[in-house]
# Entry
Amino acid sequence: MPRASIVVPSRGGAARLPFLFDALRAQTDPSWEAIVVVDGDVDDSAAVVNAVRDELPVTSIVFPENRGRSAALNAGFAAARGDVLIRCDDDLRPKPDYVAQHVAQHEGATRGAIGLYLNEYPDTPYARAYGRERDRLFRREAYSVSRASTWRYWAGNVSVTRETFDRVGGYDTEYRAYGWEDVDWGYRLKQTGADVAFVPELETPHHVAAVTTEIRVKRAFYSGAAKQTFAAKHGMEVLGARKPGVGAWGQLIDRTAGKNSLASLLVRARNADRSLDRMPRWFAEKRVSWLVESAALCGELHPDEVVNDV
# Structure
């Protein structure tokens, strides 16, 4: 029986999975299995998994249609045989001690272990104007929060024991599109009294999907819509009620979110991507910030625009 089970939800991951398998091939701890849950096989990802099954302890579960990340995670964890359960995105490139570090976090302690992403960007206008700097600020902010708030960062590079997972229960399939199924699970984990801790040694290279302003704006919108699902379940006071925009910037965000749809914000984002390199860097950063923050609030206001098949 493997000591650790790595559950990988994947949709359209045929080009990403070989890099993950290369990283798993180099693990220093050999006692692991990986379960790739293909959430509707749109690019023959199942064949990519099958190609390494004779070499690596990797199996697949293939959904005939898209069911969402929560359903994929639940299927993978139900099939897992290890005592330490690791949730790993298909675009991560784990270091050789990835499994060993995750396993070590659960020696005699009831806890959830979080490794932050080390986002790696292609050299796009979005990355130069906004992505790389915001990623640095995000990690600095994360490490500065109190231990009571670390659950908010539960994401795609985390682990718990089987006993803890069973106590919390599966991921909520009401989060059908992009975003917040992880935060919801992290909150429920914290509610059990478990310690939820960052593990700097588990920072893992992540070949980020949001490489343009357009992609980032769409994800911000979907995340804003999913936030409403979280608030309906647990109460907005858990997150802190949002106050109307303060100052000129806050008022600009409120107006933009209130007067736009996802479609119109995506048009603005595409236009931004074409012009960011021609702007002063500070102005380019502000333009992307304006669109991302407006999209997140717009998603909260118009969750009916979300399409589940993503």
